[in-house]
Design a protein that fits this description.
Two copies of one chain form a homodimer. By secondary structure, chain A is α/β, with parallel strands linked by helices. In chain A, 43% of the residues lie in helices and 25% in strands. The first copy, chain A, has three domains: 169 residues, Molybdenum Cofactor Biosythetic Enzyme, Chain A, CATH 3.40.980.10; 78 residues, Alpha-Beta Plaits, CATH 3.30.70.2860; 153 residues, CinA-like (Maf protein), CATH 3.90.950.20. In chain A, the strands form four sheets. In chain A, strands 2-1-3-8-7-6 form a six-stranded mixed sheet, sandwiched between helices. Chain A has a five-stranded mixed sheet with strand order 14-13-15-16-17, sandwiched between helices. A four-stranded antiparallel sheet of chain A has the order 10-11-9-12. The longest helix of chain A has 21 residues. Chains A and B meet through helix 2, strand 2, helix 3, helix 8 and strand 10 of A and helix 1, helix 2, strand 2, helix 3 and helix 11 of B. Strand 14 of chain A pairs antiparallel with strand 14 of chain B, so a sheet runs across the interface. Chains A, B: InterPro entries: CinA, CinA-like_C, CinA_C, CinA_KH, Competence-induced_CinA, MoaB/Mog-like_dom_sf, MoaB/Mog_dom. Chains A, B: This is Putative competence-damage inducible protein.
Chain lengths: 412, 412
Amino acid sequence: MRTEVIAVGTELLLGQIANTNAQWISQRMAELGLPVYSHAVVGDNLDRVAGSFREAARRSDIIIVTGGLGPTEDDLTRDAGSMILGKPVHEHAPSMERIEAYYKKNNKTMSLNNRKQSHVFDGAFVLDNKEGMAPGQIIQQGEVTWVFLPGVPREMKALMESGVIPFLQRSFSLQSEIVSEMLHFIGIGESDLETQLQALISHQTNPTLAPLASEGEVGLRLTATGETTDEAKAKIAEMKRVVLDKVGDFYYGSDDETIESTVQRLLSRHGYRLGAAESFTGGKFIERMISLPGASAVCQGGLTTYTAEMKEQVLDIPKYLIREYGTISHECAEMMALNTQSLLHVDAAVSFTGVAGPDSSEGKEPGTVFIGLQIRDKSPEVHRFQFQGGRDQVRERAVKKGFELLFHHLKD
Amino acid sequence: MRTEVIAVGTELLLGQIANTNAQWISQRMAELGLPVYSHAVVGDNLDRVAGSFREAARRSDIIIVTGGLGPTEDDLTRDAGSMILGKPVHEHAPSMERIEAYYKKNNKTMSLNNRKQSHVFDGAFVLDNKEGMAPGQIIQQGEVTWVFLPGVPREMKALMESGVIPFLQRSFSLQSEIVSEMLHFIGIGESDLETQLQALISHQTNPTLAPLASEGEVGLRLTATGETTDEAKAKIAEMKRVVLDKVGDFYYGSDDETIESTVQRLLSRHGYRLGAAESFTGGKFIERMISLPGASAVCQGGLTTYTAEMKEQVLDIPKYLIREYGTISHECAEMMALNTQSLLHVDAAVSFTGVAGPDSSEGKEPGTVFIGLQIRDKSPEVHRFQFQGGRDQVRERAVKKGFELLFHHLKD
């Protein structure tokens, strides 16, 4: 069963907005077990809209069209649909009443164009649009199921949830249940993970395994089908066990868990409070923690000691240490972590000092980073890294690495 | 001249990410005078990728493909391209060297898959990828110009700017010169701006005026064409004058300028150094400043005093003040700004205290925000706001408002 999403609207082709409708529909359809095979975007031109409908009808079983149902002359989905489906349109009385009532209520004059928004194809199953003007429509034409929805995201989503999804579930009597889990790994690259899981990724069909790299992390999506949700869940659990046997050292959580929320959970479990001293990362590390609801229970705050002067004055880094070793040094990172622990009265202190670039600093090249850790009464630790990339990436990678180091300390 | 953008990647069809690459490319191509006629998204499947290439070749003159150039078995753009173009691939030596150097420098083992990333089509014009592994490629095949780019947005954008756009300008000897300028406004809403510029937006054709709202700001893109660049620039300059006559109070800069870089420039002009004390914003304000190259000249650093304890201990906010007024108060914001100025030895100090939500705090509802300002020996100022939205939006809006307040102080 092949599903395709067509978005109609020149604003998408001018890049004024991103096609987030296709993204949202794709997520919901994948969850439903009717995966989307392609997206298309076409501008407000009758021939091209009709052409894209014609092509879609050749290759897809379910075609979901968004946009082009508004009141203006540029809204051509109805006209193109009429051509391709060979069906005239007529006024849909309940929609027309809704539109008239809206204009009356808001003391606005209704133009003739607004009537157009109530037009539906003959024989269409009409979905009332409680959020706006133009109704949704579903039409079966030969083997193809057509769905027409307004382009306004709020209206589109409401019609999908209340009308389209229940219709598709009934029509395709979707029996198999789909369950998926996204496993998150840190400290291992995408190609390393793939190499270690090569055989599973290539040969497994239920569950399937799909790796997805993002900045400093790798995700692995397991997707299983079964006759019941429990059966699908059991398949996921079994495969997760096999995967974690191989690469479990790098696994930190699943689905909505992030490395920040995982660190928050571990801090809370240990009853630890966290503080940080940050130089070139500018406070990004502690800001990530504070962005989480409930942060105040585990997070005291941080010092953004960007200049040497502030490291001395606020963080009590001795002048001689900076003169002797510089601020971008093992020694400075260690002292930053130590002093943060005592000054902020925290159990776990993390420090960052380094060169974000683009220029070198203190004779150290861009990407040179020292991260210090001081946890309870353990000995302080300092790790040195050489990160690639521009200013933002170096900062981003250092922050992520800080979470990784803290995670490894706290998980044991 | 019809341009088409094809994005390859199942992650797009699962809805894991939105197709922001197509959006960005469409914007740039529209500016270039080579408007995009359609977008397509296809999954990681050889037949379907090849099928979408075949269809594109039938209808488009310029085809820009993003994604599917990575090292994994799912990366099929090279294989599909080879089939459709009828051209074998070969290793591109400079790219291979770059990849090898990366692995050597990072002490990582290079897998065989990684070699694949250096493969290019025979006869392709190769664009060095300074931001990543796989190079960009341009191939002329009959009447069609093919462009292949990595899917990582940063890499794609760099290759477009440095290689693809100059190539297209040369090849299609784009005659009319296009010049555009994006004017940035802060402190005025999109609909207010539109109302004030209504007549110009509706009737102007050269330059055109296109408003674009983003979080807490509004942009207005002026785009003019002329026989020469100078002619187009003169049209922009004249229209800019007309626009600023009407809404110049809210204008802070153009094009790549941001409110942060504008504040940095103004601080530098005054010879001021900046510091901040932040509670619920978590250090986001000062982090934005430090993310700019050259920040150390104007930015001392900041204190993320998230808890009441830290406000007392590090920022010397008296216990009685907190007991009497609470931490989310006019009084606390004022004292935070004052003490930041003296503790950090800065000319300009900004403080943030408030409730990000989701819960109320100290009897104040989510969105309640106090921003304090202490500049040189002027009297301290505190502004109270009630922001709408969730935790992230309240934090984001407060930070933006802090820059707006500072901008208005510094510009006079």
